């Protein structure tokens, strides 16, 4: 058989699986579970939210809210699944559903199942349950009304009991087993170890690697791309390690953004704020640190910040492990320094020194769950009022995430003054010639990038330049 997973505690075995068929389509067309809706087919609106459980050490089941529209069916192998129908098996609404019905949380109702699943995840202790309610539902959009009644319902519902004992026993039989299949001449594999991945990568160097599918999913749903060979790597546990030391933080390539948030926030509050705004919770629950880097997007939020902090990338293959500065990985648009048979294994981020002035900011048209127009990251070492070293990196300003060498040169050896910041901002014109697109014009991007240097200087003077700063000063 190709894959096995649990739905409401019942095991489902599928012999033939389309490697890029979505979980959403399977639910709606094969199982007729039409409560789960398709709103955008790109992981943006949250109408298709489901809860997926993974067996963890303990043993326990770790539940996550995910967008089923961009989750491929083989990614369910060895996991447990809950849909909105799971919450009321006898037709009686659970406490959250009843509360939302009573207080008018739903108007047209189309988005409601997604909100229910996100908030049910919060109630049962799923990943992200410790976040503010507004953050939990940032990846759910309602086009009819305000969010007031929805937030009220979430606050009224207490923690709900989730008995996973039977699920744990069943998952123990199927979790951790490698899987593979063939469908209409297309192949897919789901290795469970890095060694298996390295072997497959060598045998199929042109295969598409899929960790969270938050980007590749759109290749299929929006670009109608046909992927001939797919290797699903998201369940390789040894690539999901988080190791913190006095010198650095190491994040394995498979660490989900939601899981990396706390460790990154400990490195610096700006990193925590950047990752809090890293799309909606459903996307952060699926997308990985390695996938965000390997994708090489010029508007990916992670690389500029990690480059500014001096991160190094670990690449692995059957030949061994290779390490390089993260900024050297990005060669040109769509081109990375990834040799045949290699895959991203992890990233090492040095812990900033106490005398480092850091500012990381994302500018986007919509505050939550949106792609950056400009993402700027600055790490300046200050001694006796002078800038002795500088690392400045931007996303959204060029074909790749890139350091701003002219800007850095204008900073190093100069007094840390507003005049120096202004000269460094002007030097950005030597570093970048941004494009005009729907997210911002070239003029806007250059002006905004320069303003971020000004914000860094203001913050170091003790001023508040964002809501995060104002909360810190009030505290």
TrEMBL record:
UniProt lineage: Bacteria, Pseudomonadati, Pseudomonadota, Alphaproteobacteria, Sphingomonadales
PANTHER family assigned to the protein according to its UniProt record, in alphabetical order: XANTHINE DEHYDROGENASE (PTHR45444:SF3)
Keyword Transferase found: no
Recorded superkingdom: Bacteria
Gene Ontology molecular-function annotations: xanthine dehydrogenase activity
Gene3D superfamilies: 3.10.20.30, 3.30.465.10, [2Fe-2S]-binding domain, CO dehydrogenase flavoprotein, C-terminal domain, Uridine Diphospho-n-acetylenolpyruvylglucosamine Reductase, domain 2
InterPro entries in UniProt: 2Fe-2S-bd, 2Fe-2S-bd_dom_sf, 2Fe-2S_ferredoxin-like_sf, 2Fe-2S_ferredoxin-type, 2Fe2S_fd_BS, Ald_Oxase/xanthine_DH-like, Beta-grasp_dom_sf, CO_DH_flav_C
Keywords: FAD, Flavoprotein, Iron, Metal-binding, Oxidoreductase
UniProt EC number: 1.17.1.4
Name of the molecule in the record: Xanthine dehydrogenase small subunit
One Pfam short name: FAD_binding_5
Keyword Oxidoreductase on entry: yes
Residue span(s) of domain FAD-binding PCMH-type: 181-354
